[in-house]
Amino acid sequence: MSLVYAGTMNVSPSEPKVGDTVTATATTEAPDAHHASFLWQHDGTLKRIKGLLAVINGRVSDSCKVDEAGFWFVEANIYNATGTIVDHSYTSFTVKNQTGVGGVFVPVDKLTLLAPYIALAITVVAISIGAMYMRNRWFGKAIVQTP
Question: Would 1 be classed as within a structural domain?
Answer without folding.
Answer: no
